[in-house]
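Take a specimen:
=====
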Amino acid sequence: MKVNKIIVLRLMLSMMLVLGFASCSKKSSSKNSSRATGWNVDGKKASKKQEAGPGLVFVEGGTFTMGKVEDDVMHDWNNTPTQQHVQSFYMDETEVTNAMYLEYLDWVKNVFPPTEENYKNIYEGASPDTLVWRNRLGYNETMTNNYLRHPSYADYPVVGVNWIQAVEFSKWRTQRVNEALLEKSGYLKKNAKTNDVTAESNFDTETYLNSPTLAYGGNAEIVLPGKKGARKTPKSGKNGTAAEPKNIYAQRSSGILLPEYRLPTEAEWEYAAAADVGQREYNIYKGQKKYPWSGSYTRSGKRQSKGDQLANFKQGNGDYGGIAGWSDDGADITNAVKKYPANDFGLYDMAGNVAEWVMDVYRPIVDNEANDFNYFRGNQYTKNKIGTDGKVEVVTKETMKNDTLSNGKVVVRSFPGQIAQVPVDENETYLRQNFDKSDNVNYRDGDKQSSKFFNFADAESTNKKAVDERKMYNSPKHNVSTDSLGKMVRKYDKSNKRTTLINDNVRVYKGGSWRDRAYWLDPAQRRYFPQDMATDYIGFRCAMSKVGAKAEKRKTARN
């Protein structure tokens, strides 16, 4: 009995010790306790998982062979296969439609009235070129007058949009999405985005993050301290003064704001279009697709849809859709989005319908020796402009900047409410190994150092004419200027010494369109077009980088 009592006592003591340690452990790792210092961290825990923005589909990143085509009848020599890795990202499920773009135009027209002198170029600069439908020997006035605005075409991809306009639409979309998220979280006055917005009082994500009190023109009735800041009045300190509340505005660390909408890079677009993940077996791809779907044919082999065309493209001379009836692909010009099956990532119309702008500046060679991770050519690094008062300088209607394009069209590059940008300088580049200047478009291909005329002994030559004549790409230079009366003067470059159309202002576009043969439906095919010009067969879709983990769902063993 005595022995049993001792055993029971020992067990009770052991249990008490275990419970004591557990309670101590629980106290030391409270919900707001820092794992680094053990300090209590005030504030609500931010969401760690990024939510997909409106209209976006998740594309899990991975490795693939970029530029590998099955056919090369054009002999462009610009599709050298390279192994590339793309980070996970989000991409628009469909191309940007007329309805989506009209929402943008309506906002621009309401906020920046074209009747006001300061804003007269903004709406016109954002509007698609509807004259792209005209043809010298074709009657297309119906599309010229109706394609953009008639409700019958609302779900058709927008065309007549140049690369610059596509980029500006993406920026606008970023601001409107983040504006709605902040309003939902209590950081902006409800419905201010429609009732109170003006040219001098509108929302910009970067302005809000850098200086919240400058957003909406500094209107404190619209920019709120959020639920946390309004929860309770600050307590008075020992000297009787109330302590100012901290972190009352949303920040990046709040996890509320999304990364920017943008055009996809060429590598991202090609990876997403090919969707080789559908042919994966364990850790290899079972061959490479010729099209965004499996197989070597453009018609469906599935029992339910056997014989149906899988994309909208030109099938031959004078054959934009096939014979009317069962074998028709359902379209002669563009078609409404989602009319053809999605690929293995859930993306529609990655072949056919319209070709699509991507971010990259065009060069014949993808330089995988310099980089094989998130490849992109076109980086131009900038930083926020700091005013004489030491604060960020916000653009006003007096400091807006217009650009005159080579075709004479005027577009606005910096809008009121945005933070003014300047190129990075030696303060950011000195002794860096990863970049050494602001403009990296020409890196290793296109600048003087890339040409056969480069002489290291004469690397610092200041003779602009000599440098210009010995550039890598001797493309035409059209000049647009304004005379003393404000009249635009257009000078067309008629030189017969030009040898190429490639320069720093031509952008890659990917995918086949309703005007193209099946050859161009291959995701690896690539072409280029001037960034300030538009056509009736190039549209675009947006992408967004993913922050955090590579995968959205936890991986499990296959078996």
User: Anything to note?
Assistant: The first helix runs from residue 2 to 28.
